[in-house]
Write a structure and sequence with these properties.
It is built from one helix and three strands; from the N terminus they run E-E-E-H. It is largely without helices or strands. The longest helix is centred in the C-terminal third of the chain and has 7 residues. The chain is globular.
Length: about 150
């Protein structure tokens, strides 16, 4: 998932050189007046331009260079890049180990890392979010009582 802010002059996704064996799956970018692709994708349906609706994304000035030097330490961002409940990134991803044509050893290695998000929340069969955070299912209600009629 990438985000380009208004006035940005760089592409959200850049591919350098020709490579016919490069495939893209489920890529969301939010190009608010800039960005896009600097190449022609073999499957444009795998790229969609939607606001990911982060809870509290950091402020970026598209006209100021070298912002990485004074950027907030990623360890201090906390939950700012988690997704709001209405985010189009929720359940929009795929299990990357199911991509056809991957060598068996890559699949084995992927499976060590991909079934939970950055906070350890499980990613289940059909519920993959795009990005680092998986939305946890709502907690079951507590304190319920039953009444016989």
């Amino acid at each position: 998932m990438t985000t380009s802010w208004a006035g940005a002059s760089v592409s959200s996704y850049q591919q350098v050189g020709a490579n016919s064996s490069l495939y893209y799956y489920k890529n969301m970018s939010f190009d608010d007046g800039g960005g896009g692709l600097n190449f022609t994708s073999s499957d444009p349906s795998q790229f969609f331009n939607l606001d990911p609706q982060f809870v509290s994304p950091p402020s970026i000035n598209p006209n100021l260079g070298h912002q990485y030097a004074s950027a907030t330490d990623p360890a201090l961002i906390g939950t700012a890049l988690t997704l709001q409940a209405s985010s189009p990134a929720i359940n929009a991803g795929i299990d990357p180990s199911t991509v056809s044509g991957l060598p068996a050893q890559i699949i084995v290695d992927l499976k060590h890392y991909i079934y939970s998000d950055i906070d350890g929340v499980a990613r289940t069969a059909a519920n993959w979010n795009l990005g680092a955070y998986q939305s946890a299912p709502p907690a079951p209600p507590t304190g319920l009582t039953t009444t016989a009629h």
